[in-house]
Write a structure and sequence with these properties.
The protein has 207 residues and is α+β, with helices and mostly antiparallel strands. It has one domain (3-183): NADH Oxidase (3-Layer(aba) Sandwich), CATH 3.40.109. 44% of the residues lie in helices and 13% in strands. The chain has helices spanning 3-9, 24-34, 54-63, 68-72, 85-100, 108-119, 125-148, 161-167, and strands at residues 46-51, 75-81, 152-156, 175-183. The protein has a four-stranded antiparallel beta sheet. The radius of gyration is 19 Å and the shape is globular. The two termini are 34 Å apart.
Amino acid sequence: MEIINAVKERRSINFFEPGREISVGKLKELIELANLSPSSFNLQPWRLVAVNTPERKKALRKCAFDQPKVEEASAVFIIIADPDAVEKNSARVLDSWEKLGYMKPEMRDVYLGMMKNLYGEAGSLTRKLFAVKNASLFGMNLMLTAKGLGLETHPMDGFDEAAVKKEFKIPDDKLIPMLIAAGYLKSDIKLLPRAFRRDIGEFTSFE
């Protein structure tokens, strides 16, 4: 599917076909493509839990205000923002840049300093915003990729973050910007027309 069609046709689906699975191979393909998402300094501050077994989806549903789509979807992705990606990934990013010719060796400390200055100290609000912003780019890329692979999705904000962390053993210092349910539209459901969208004149200025 062309990207413009994917953007136009992507919808947030509430009713998934229960019992219809996505193969592990297809899930891995989806994740690998979504992982091409851009990120600040290529630091990729995201982690992912793909919840695709009936037992774990049932457990996640309890953390998501008992929403049926959590169990009915083929898989639900827990998008995790990792503020510690600066420390974890910076060396590999800089190694790659140097190897591929993006950066001269003598610039390594300069770029490392820029990362630390831009994203603040570990645990700071600046660092948390950095992680959430970039993990959300990954989440959007995952949804568009899913559409291209013939899947439907729904980004979810309705969940108890503390409960999700406890159930899935996610450290307290990580953040969960969203869950993304993925699967196939229930066969007897016909989608209503796309709902209200603001005119771009309401929120855009050209300068």
